[in-house]
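Session log. Operator J.P. requested a structure for one protein chain; no other inputs attached. Running the standard single-chain path with token output.
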Amino acid sequence: MAKKPTATRKKLPEFDKYYHYRESVQSPDEDAAFLEDIYRRAQGRKPTVFREDFCGTFANCCAWVKRNSKNTAFGLDLDPEPINYGKTHYLPLLSRDQQARVKIELKNVLGRNLPKADVICALNFSYFIFKERQVLKSYFAACRKSLNAGGVFVIDAFGGPKCQEANEEVSENGNPPFDYFWDQDSFDPLTHEAVFHIHFKRKGEKKRLNVFTYDWRMWTLPELRDLLLEVGFSKVEYLWEGTSADGHGDGNFQVVQKGEECEAWVAYLAAHA
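Structure written below.
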């Protein structure tokens, strides 16, 4: 009698932290369109030169150059690891012409002689790494100096009562699906310093702990607006997320004069030169 074949479990591909990060928290094509629209609404024309600070794998830069054959993107970061990842995983997906219009530099965003742009962004709360007011002010001043006439600097921020205590949220992302955990480990009410971790769990595997860790100061919206105006921006707009029928954010951000009372919120600030 022939031996019955043994069932084998399909082996998952090697774990890729940057893939899982992008699938969980990034939407480069949507972000590029959103940033372009902020500028177009103010200037009546489309921007062409983009700079992504704390660019990491520079996915937003790649999305930017795909939008228009005239677009150029600069990415700045101090960490060579995510930059090298982007060069091996994202750049090859672009045409030769598009690749030539992506310029990535291993530079400090607080440095001198930084690339000028129509739109500069620091997303995913990356600038929260600056905990001292004077340092953050210096960064905002450097961005103001780097903007072309009529340019805009866009940042995001988050907060709310739920973000002032230890907690963990989980969501399902990707294909095949995996669990993404956003873990707030601590919050200091005296300094607004907080530590966060990102964990991942794929089906059939143990939870991968502390794949990314962030030690930040959670800046408030009025603090950020005051600093941006102090360094010379002419106008700072708040963009607040709308609410869907089920009470959750609908992903649609509009300029507002007053926010809503929410347990947790994400907002954008658009600072115009």
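Operator note: The longest strand covers residues 147-159.
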